[in-house]
Structures are given as C-alpha cells and as structure tokens.
Amino acid sequence: MYFYYNIKNMKDKNFYIENYGCQMNISDSDIITSILLKNGFTQSKNLDEANIILLNACSIREKAELTLKKRLEQLKFYKKNKKIWIGITGCFSKQIKKIFLEKKIVDFFVSPDSYREIHNFINYSIIGKKYFFYDSIKKKNETYADINIIKQKNKKITTFLSITRGCDNMCTFCIVPFTRGRERSTDPNSIIKECERLYQNGYKEIILLGQNVDSYLWIYNKKNINQNQKNVVDFSNLLDLLAKKNPMMRIRFSTSNPHDMSNKVLEVISKHKNICKHIHLPVQSGSNKILKLMNRKYTREKYLFLVKQIKNIIPECSISHDIISGFCNENEEDHQDTINLMKEIKYNYGYMFSYSPRPGTYAYRKLKDNVPKHIKKKRLQEIIDLQRKHSFYRMQEHLGKVEEVLIEGESKKNNQYWYGRNTQNLIVVFPKKHLNIGDLVHVKIKNTTSATLIGDICI
Ligand code: SAH
Ligand code: F3S
C-alpha cells in the first residue's frame, strides 16, 4: 500500500539517458527507453528537466571508465541541489559499483540482463528502498526478443538490432564476458519480425549486433540436435533468411570473430545484393605469441588465410580491424609482426587501442602489464599512422567508380552536401540536389581523403 501511494504521488517519472561505449549500448538504450515508456515513465532530452538520470556505462577500457567516473563526480554536485535518482546500466565493473555506492552518488545499478525489471528497480529506489544490487538478478537467457522497441523520432534510417548477447570467448584482456554474461542467441522469428517492423517504420538499413555474430545459433528442437537438419539456424542461415525476406533492407553486421567466420557466411554475403560488403574482423595482434596470451583462438596464418578467402569470395569486400598495442609481454618483434600483418592486408580502416588491464580478467589476475606506458603510446602511434596511410591507399581504389550510397543525413562540414555510406561502410559526401534522406543513389567518386569519399550524383 505504502509503495503504491508513494509512486502515485511522484508527479512525473521523467528520465534522461546518457550513452557511453559501443553499438550494443546504443541498441540497449532503445530497449531501456522502450521498457520505461511502456511503464508510465516519460523521457526528457534535457538533463535539467529529468529526475531520473541513467548512465548507460562502458568499462571496456580504463579510459572509458575514467570518463564515467568524471561524469559521476559532476552529477554529485547536481544531486546536492535537486532531488534526483542516478542509475548505472550497461557494462560496469565491481570497482565502479563499490566506489559510487560508498560515495552515495549512484542509487541503483542494473545489469544488461535485468532491464526487463528496470521500471520496478527505479520505483524501489524512489521510495527509498536500499536495495542496490539489481545487477545480481540476472536472467541468463534474456534476449529481449519480444520487446517492441520504440525508436526515437530522429529521422534516422539506419538502426541496430542485437542478435546475440554476451560472449563466451574469454579473451584474456576483455571484461565483456563478466559484464554481459554468457552468450545466447535471439529467436530468428523474432529477428525477422523486428526487421520487417523496422522497415515498415521507415528504416532502410539494419546493423545486426553481437560480440561474435558468427557464433549465432538457434536450435528449434533441442532434443533432436543435428547440424544437417533444418531445425538449426546458424549465422549464414539467418543472414540468408533476412536478406530474402527483406530485399529492400540493407543489412550490415558486427562483429565477426576470425575464429568462427565460415565460408558459408561469405557465400551468403556474396549472393545477396542487400547484404553489405564489409567485414569488421578484429585481429588484436599480428604475433602468434600474443594471440595465444590473449586466448584468441586463431593464429596469424589462419587469420591471413581467412582474409584471402574473403577477398576470393567477395572481391569488393572492405575489411576493418581492432588492434590492441602493448599487451602483456609484447616486445618489439611482436609489435613488428602486427605492423607487417597490417602491411600485408592494408585494412580499409580500424580501431586502435593501447592495452589497459581490466580488473577481474585473466590478464589482470595472471599476466604482468609490463610494457611501459611510453612504449605502448609509441607503438600505438605507429599503428595509427600506418593505418592512416592504408586507409588513404584503399580510398584511392574508389576513384572514378560509381557506387551505391544510402543517404543518411546532412554533411557536418557543409549543409549543401549529403553524407551516406557505400556498401563497404565508407562515408561518401556529395552535393544535395533534389534528393532526400533514405534515398539509395548512385554517386561517382571524384576525390578522397583518408576517411571520406567525395563525389557527385549520377542522374
Ligand atoms: N567482441 C567485440 C569486442 C568488443 S570490445 C568485438 O570483437 O568487437 C571492442 C574492442 O575493444 C576489442 O576488439 C579490443 O580491441 C578492445 N579492447 C577490449 N578490451 C580491451 C582492453 N582491456 N584494453 C584495450 N583494448 C581493449
Ligand atoms: Fe571480448 Fe573476446 Fe568476446 S574481445 S567480447 S571476450 S570475443
């Protein structure tokens, strides 16, 4: 009785959500928002108007966690002047939880597997229940398959859809298996339905998300497991089904783990025009010694062979990477292995990081973070500089070509230009003319930088 009385008396439960980190978090923000809106909360785009502030956190690298800490310190002053509730969702470490509970800045923590109940947790906090550990109520099979996601009206035409959650790979540097739990796949029927619904709502491109999309697996009849039967849907089957059912929807996906990527997947990508020709294939290091220490389950040779297969089966495919520099025990020779692997592949683009130990991971517990900071920095800079060269080189390959581009919005640098992406996930800008956001157009590439293709519409 007391509980309902208080909740009803709280005039409006107005939340503001701030997002940190990866695409999965952006997609999860939509899930959280949808659950709250369906349960009587309102959303504010303005921090000052809200009485519930949610930070959808990332703790993948030390830097991300520092950003979060700084933000929380800022909010501490905010909290002094106004009655607000602060909650952390997403990937947060035990340390963050400990520090900010002690400081009494954060009122509640909700882990990625507990969002279905987030409205209740907030309500408990509002009535002053000191029950902080909502992250321990994890639903290990949660995929949010039946949540009809309410997308914000922001004229976007591309959106994320998660097809797997969690990760089982246990790379020794990575905190994700600890913050997001075991891997599980979403029912393909739900993915297909959601994809159709999104298309009907004006979306023209969908990005399928998973820490390791290639290990997507759905088994219809668990008693009768047989890889050759149709009761098993793997990633190649899922892509094939989606591409056929929604021929007008562009499909992208991320991330592919080199260990699990199969030729079957490559063949499906090559077969369908609406599956984009880009693979994000994090390598992390070019040294077999380091790959082993990282518990990545492939070798440099296997990775290079896979890249060859990709280029054989899908010649126009772009490839991007993630690389970590300065992992435990990395010496100059290992670093040169990475540099040489990059030279061999000449990636289209990549995301490059210097290693930061994450509490709880194997590397944090068992390996020494023994590469001095200035060396990590120097190696990282070499990797970044080399990638810039390769990106520029790869961009030149597009000069003079006519490419299909989906218009996503106005160019940030010039409001007379549109920007969009070609099938290889490269940004293309071109004069607007009479076209609109969401149009799929042909653009002739006339110029490039290392990050952008510049062209003109072909009429
Ligand atoms: N499965 C996802 C991984 C998400 S983490 C994927 O393959 O994309 C994204 C990237 O962050 C990783 O690929 C890795 O390059 C980087 N990363 C993860 N943990 C890190 C750490 N402790 N230090 C530095 N970079 C890290
Ligand atoms: Fe992390 Fe490796 Fe999984 S990088 S998310 S443990 S594939």
From TrEMBL:
Enzyme class: transferase
Cofactor(s) essential for the protein: [4Fe-4S] cluster
Domain MTTase N-terminal: from-to ranges: 13-127
GO MF entries: 4 iron, 4 sulfur cluster binding; metal ion binding; tRNA-2-methylthio-N(6)-dimethylallyladenosine(37) synthase activity
The UniProt record lists the keyword NADP: no
Domain Radical SAM core: 153-394
A UniProt-annotated Pfam family: UPF0004
Keyword Membrane attached: no
NCBIfam families: miaB-methiolase, MiaB/RimO family radical SAM methylthiotransferase
Annotated protein name in UniProt: tRNA-2-methylthio-N(6)-dimethylallyladenosine synthase
UniProt organism field: Blattabacterium cuenoti STAT
Lineage, top ranks: Bacteria, Pseudomonadati, Bacteroidota, Flavobacteriia, Flavobacteriales
